[in-house]
Amino acid sequence: MDYFDLIEKRESCRNFDGTPIEKHLITRCLEATRLAPSACNGQPWRFIVVTKPESVAALSRCMQPFNRLAGAMIVILEAKPSLMTSIGNQLKDQDFTQIDIGIAASYLTLAATELGLSSCIVGWFDEKAVRSQFKVPKNQRIRLIISLGYTHAPQPRPKRRKTLQDLILIED
Ligand SMILES: Cc1cc2nc3c(=O)[nH]c(=O)nc-3n(C[C@H](O)[C@H](O)[C@H](O)COP(=O)(O)O)c2cc1C
Q: Above 90 in pLDDT, residue 105?
């Protein structure tokens, strides 16, 4: 799909229909995510790939109810930043690692859209409960969960966004 059509089509899905997702589509999404850029090329993300219906059901209980009918979920863990990224974070007083994870989530959801899947980036979940389900060590943050699936409403909604005028502070 043309890139500009793709970004128009991607939207947060909150009406999954419960259809499971073919494994090769999930792999394709993750292969695209793997190519995302990151500070110092640190690639500070690790994935838990959740496809078994009983695991999706259990995970969805840690999330908002609409996730119950997702076909699969990708839990994005924050990996320890590389030495270079840690130095960069400190020197620039930035959290490049979380920025990187956001970019990875974009890559993942746009790839999903290209493959005909609906998605939702989810930051509102019970981190402690997810940690316990997958035995994630205490010191490892779980940053996002990407719900993937098929939707009842494939027609994209109009986007509600600020105008460029609102967004461009200075045009020098
Ligand atoms: C970091 C992040 C966290 C989000 N967390 C949630 C969430 O927990 N639940 C939810 O329904 N949507 C969540 N969203 C989706 C946003 O609400 C959505 O992207 C925004 O309203 C724009 O709508 P659109 O994605 O349909 O274009 C999240 C999006 C981002 C980028």
A: yes
Instruction: Please give the pLDDT value at position 48.
Output: 98
Beta carbons within 8 Å of 142's beta carbon, 6+ residues apart: 75, 76, 77, 78, 125, 127, 130, 131, 136
* Predicted model pTM: 0.96
Work out which ligand 1 atom sits closest to the CA atom of 102: 1
Task: Indicate if ligand 1 lies below 6 Å from the C-beta of 122.
Answer: yes
Q: Tell me the two tokens of residue 111.
A: 């790839």
Whose CA is closest to atom 30 on ligand 1? Answer: 121
CATH numbers and ranges of domains, the chain: 3-167 (3.40.109.10)
Query: Which two tokens mark 125?
Result: 């979940």
- Closest atom of ligand 1 to CA, residue 124: 8
Q: What is the DSSP letter of 40?
A: G
pLDDT at 154 over 80: no
